[in-house]
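User: Before I run my own analysis I want an independent prediction to cross-check against. Here's the chain; please return only the structure tokens and, at the end, one sentence I can use as a sanity check.
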Amino acid sequence: EQKYGITSLLAGQSLHLNKLDKVDFSFIVGGSEKEKGLLAKLTTNNIKYFTLENIEFHKNFFNLCKALNKIVIEENPNIIHVQTNWQFIIAAYTKRRYKKQYKIFYTIHAFRHNDVRKAPFAKLIISNMIKFFGDKAVACSKFTYDNFSNISRKLQLINLGVDDIFFKNNISARRPHGEIIKLAFVGEFRDGKNQIMLIKAISKLVSNHGYKKVHLTLAGVGDNIVKCKQFVKNVGLEEYISFPGFLSKSEVCRLFENTDVALIPTNSETFGLCIAEPYCAGCCVVSRDVGVAGELINKSKNGFIFSDEYDLYDTLVKLVENTHLIIKTFYNWR
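Assistant: Structure tokens:
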């Protein structure tokens, strides 16, 4: 994926693809990995992979095309499955320039969907790329599918899926973790993720409502984390909000195993692992109606949908005053 290189999601998908008898699968990776040990996992599981150095970054386009062509000559693939616009352009140019016959499949992970000004232009560009140069595209949620309905002939709705480790928790035995209600959100600190909205909600719970038996964990890294930490300090919430930084997939799973309520305040998600992972781990999920939230959450039965910061606050007040509602979502899980 762009900037990060190989992610745990792609590594996990490769493990399952490699188990299919009728699929001869090879992985093309850059020189970096989002969390340590992912490339070693590929090697341990005998997954063939090729390295295109710096494919994560927008540079050395023609060199990357030449390198990809060498892999194509060696492997003769029927399909190249790309994950970003940059990868799509490289695969499409290489196919045309070197007269190759492979098909291009594209999973749509993002389209500037957190920016209302840029999203229409991004959708237009991606739609035309798929229309003229792609063979199939994958939409990860109904939300994404609806946004690209103009290319429905080439579009398939397939949810990304969630790592198996999130299903191992004993959901039926879950209870709120002690007197303190534990809340969590895992996401990059950038515009559109709205961690400040969560901080304000906790501030109102503590100061206005007088409810102090809550703790919010905001996991992740990004440009806005300094601003968020400073805001927490300014409103005196250091005791109630923690910032553990970047968490590996196994650490995210452990966090959700010890979380009562997962909060998702984002403006938009194409799929929403931040929704699906805590849901599968058995948390009570309180989310805006983004990504797969509308497909997973049956309001008040196995989670809650909120629209804005006022609705979020009202929902949190309801949950802290009626913890049986949290327990109810545990039993209604899936």
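Sanity check: Residues 61-75 form the longest helix (15 residues).
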